[in-house]
Amino acid sequence: MAMAAALLWALNGTVVKVIQESGGMSSLRLVEIRNTLAFAGLAVAIALVRPSLLRVAWRELPFLIAFGIAGLALVQWLYLVAVARMPIGIALIVEYVGIVFVALWARFVYREPVRRRVWVALLLAIAGLALVVEVWSGLELDGVGLTASIAAAFVLALYFLMAEHEVGKRDPVSLICYGFFFGTLFWAAVQPWWSFPFGLLDDSGSLLGNLADVELPVWALVAYMVVLGTIVPFGLMVGALRHISATRAGIVAMLEPVAASVVAFAWLDESLGAAQLLGGGVVLGGILLAQTAR
User: Fold this and answer.
1) Burial of 176 (0-12, 13-18, 19+ CB in 10 A)
2) Phi first, then psi: what are they for 205, rounded to 5°?
3) Residue 225's closest CA among 13, 4, 6?
4) Inter-residue contact 72 to 156 (CB < 8 Å)
5) What torsion, rounded to 10 degrees, do the Cα atoms 248, 251, 256, 257 define?
6) Alpha helix ranges (H) inside 209-273
7) What is the Cα–Cα distance from 198 to 219, expressed in whole angstroms?
8) What is the mean pLDDT of the segment spanning 28-53?
9) Residue-by-residue DSSP string for 52-117
10) What is the mean pLDDT of residues 124-149?
11) What is the DSSP letter of 97?
12) To the nearest whole number, what is the mean pLDDT of the chain?
């Protein structure tokens, strides 16, 4: 489940890039529509299939509000701020250091035993990510961007820890649904819906790269982003936390930038060098090692 989520997120990254470049929609507006439509889709599905899951006690609201804003809304916003000011690869590496924070929290706060091979797996995964994004090709560290990336790492760790804590009490689908609901309210306050550029949804955009001759309406790409790029992978990742620890799930999530590089190579014809292939193998090795730590 965690691997499937990482692969769907990787593919969605290229879809989002196509929407931004061909559809002309800003990153912040994409995050807003992503949260809002994901909440609407999940709420309708739950109401039709199992409405009892939507019941919530008053005492749960503070946690759900914090999860929706910090765990879902802010992690996307901070990442967008980071990639706008510094190379996307560097931003990814700094953000995924959050998985180390998860392991440290498990060890020193929860007092859980973290096997030695998990630490080795973390080092392998981070080293592999550094190879994938070729950090030596030139670091341009902007102060605001670096600050946003570090903050995103902490928020990413918070997402995994909060989700792992709550799935023992609440169904993963309803947890994600309420998370997106409060994330939607947050974005509606930041960017009121009456200022949304709805006219852009009817436009058609090229799929770019090797699919440049193919055009799709922006609303179709947005629909893919919402369903297979948001609802399904977030649900899978939270569901995975019922079976594996947040540390192991986070290491598996590091598959995302590796798979994203492969997708960009096949779709957008971006280069994939020997170092990136080696880095992908190192990340996969770290993931496999983490999965042996019971």
Assistant:
1) buried
2) -135, 150
3) 13
4) no
5) 180
6) 218-226, 232-240, 246-253, 255-267
7) 10
8) 89
9) GGG---GGGHHHHHHIIIIIIIIHHHHHHHHHHHS-HHHHHHHHHTHHHHHHHHHHHTS-----HH
10) 74
11) T
12) 83
What is the DSSP secondary-structure string of 180-194?
A: HHHHHHHHHHHS-GG
Q: Which tokens belong to 97? A: 């250091």
Residue located via tokens 């690869």? 89
* Pairing relationship of beta strands 215-217 and 204-206 according to DSSP bridges: antiparallel
Confidence of residue 140 (pLDDT cuts 50, 70, 90): low
Predicted confidence (pLDDT) per residue in 206-257, tens digit: 888 888 888 888 899 999 999 998 889 988 988 898 888 887 888 888 788 7
The full length of the chain comes to 294
Instruction: Assess contact for 164 and 241: CB atoms under 8 A.
Output: yes
Angstrom CA distances, 285 to 34, 123, 159, 231, 238, stand at 32, 11, 24, 28, 23
What residue segments make up the domains of the chain, in order of their start?
Answer: 2-291
Sign of the dihedral through C-alpha 244, 248, 250, 256: negative
- Per-range mean pLDDT, top range of 56-60, 117-121, 260-264, 279-283: 56-60
pTM of the prediction?
Answer: 0.79
pLDDT value, residue 29: 86
pLDDT at 234: 85
Instruction: Give the residue-averaged pLDDT of 56-69.
Output: 91
**Which residues make Cβ contacts (< 8 Å) with residue 77, sequence separation at least 6?**
28, 31
pLDDT at 125 (0 to 100): 79
